[in-house]
Design goal:
mainly beta
Length: about 210
């Protein structure tokens, strides 16, 4: 298991980032694309998000084709936690979550964000664009009916599994893999020697 804890009572914490800064005029869009945090990740702090603890900025943050199963807790259990993007104290409406799902006891994002074609096991979700689905109905063949995600991006229907991102699942038969994805193999050698003059040359997932 991986434990991620804030070292400050005011700290923002997430699996990928704590807090982002930047105004609409200068801040660039941040995108999480085909990323995941599984149930082995345990996160605790003040502003808590499975991916990012605080996305409170006028510049946009987008989550696209991702899933989160992180275990989340507020250090005093007094404020909400979120499965993807945490606190939005600037009340920005620029953040979004698209084509994603979450398994956990928290909503995906604060309510100001835009959510499209998303799914959650959290029965008290207040978000538009989110469908509540039981964990059992997210697994196996049932997921094909209850979570209609793009099967070119996702492998849906694995026995005893929730939808998996194809690029990360090397247990699938070759015929079911995205041909652009890494097949799980590892290169036996690399070109270059790792020095400044001859850096390693990496051109594919195996390398």
């Amino acid at each position: 298991k991986a434990y991620i804890n804030s070292t400050s009572s005011k700290g923002a914490v997430g699996a990928f980032a704590g807090r982002r800064h930047g105004w609409a005029e200068t801040g660039k869009k941040v995108t999480f694309d085909k990323c995941f945090v599984d149930e082995t990740v345990i996160i605790s702090g003040k502003d808590v998000g499975g991916f990012m603890g605080s996305a409170s900025t006028a510049a946009p943050t987008e989550v696209n084709s991702c899933y989160s199963m992180a275990k989340l807790t507020h250090f005093k259990n007094t404020e909400p936690v979120y499965m993807f993007l945490g606190a939005n104290w600037s009340n920005s409406d620029k953040n979004s979550v698209i084509n994603s799902y979450a398994v956990g006891d928290a909503d995906l994002v604060p309510s100001k964000a835009t959510v499209t074609n998303c799914y959650t096991t959290y029965e008290d979700s207040v978000l538009e664009g989110v469908k509540v689905v039981s964990y059992e109905n997210m697994m196996g063949e049932a997921a094909k009916v209850n979570i209609p995600l793009n099967e070119y991006v996702w492998y849906v229907g694995g026995e005893g599994k929730t939808p998996q991102l194809r690029v990360f699942d090397d247990t699938l038969p070759p015929v079911e893999r995205d041909p652009r994805a890494w097949d799980g193999s590892k290169a036996e050698s690399l070109r270059g020697n790792g020095t400044a003059a001859e850096p390693y040359l990496i051109s594919n997932g195996a390398e």
